[in-house]
Amino acid sequence: LRCRHRYGLNDLEMIPDCLHCAARTALAAATFASIHFSFAPDALALGYTPSTTTNGDPPRLMRCEPNTNCVSSGYLEPPNRYLSPLQTLSDRDTAYRRAVRDLSSALDGKVETVAKDYYVHVEVPGTAQGSIDDVEILFGGEGGTVNVRCEARVTLPPPPFCVKKGCINGNMDQRERVEKIARILGLPSIDAGRMKDTAKWTPIFLNSDRVPTDLEYDDY
User: How deeply is 5 buried, as exposed, middle or buried, from its count of CB atoms within 10 A (0-12, 13-18, 19+)?
Assistant: First the structure.
């Protein structure tokens, strides 16, 4: 931090200017520190691990790192970063070709593929102005499962709560991007039927559900 001498001012007269300069610098640094930037030198080097011919390892999508705006269908993800895998309605080859075709025509962002692994990477506009989110889609070979992952290159602080019915508080913008792509591809969520038939959304506030009275509680 440097303070320039004004013409005709002595050191004592410069002190207010130096303090003002230091305060502005500290405020800018604190604001910038609350935002995390991550730049991808190679679009295919984000969360995608290619298959290997030597060990026969299948391709996979990496887990989301903590404190990032990221969601993934990996089963090890915590609830605020987990979303359901998608499911194909046809064979894998047909679903993959249609996905590449439909995404290339429907989105303005860059679409990259690795055909041998049935992998698709799409760049879409992010939440921060001028930023990019990376959406990755991996078509599996068993059961028609399609794994997905979306990560923001600019990480913003998460909102304290969500008000949309049925929403999950955690990286909502990234969830919406995956849902949009799923609608473009016509791929349903694997958990959609199960959640519709058996799940019940209960609001935290203004909850009128009856408290069970036939439970036995242990005293500790």
Answer: exposed
Residue 198 has what DSSP assignment? H
104-147: pLDDT as tens digits: 999 877 899 999 999 999 999 999 999 999 999 999 987 899 99
For the record, the structure tokens of 10 come out as 């002595």
One-character DSSP codes across 37-98:
E---SSGGGSSEE---TTT-PPPEEPPPPTTSSEEE--TTS-TTTB-PPEE-SS-HHHHHHH
Predicted TM-score (pTM) of the model is 0.67
Exposed / middle / buried, residue 95 (Cβ in 10 Å: 0-12, 13-18, 19+): buried
Q: What angle do CA 172, 175, 179 make, to 5 degrees?
A: 135
Return the sign of the alpha-carbon dihedral for residues 105, 147, 153, 48.
negative
Residue-wise pLDDT for 78-102, tens only, equals 988 999 999 998 899 999 999 999 9
CA pair distance 43, 193, nearest whole angstrom:
33
End-to-end C-alpha distance for the chain, whole angstroms: 59
The distance between the two most distant Cα atoms of the chain, rounded to a whole number of Å, is 85
Helix (H, G, I), strand (E, B) or coil at 150: strand
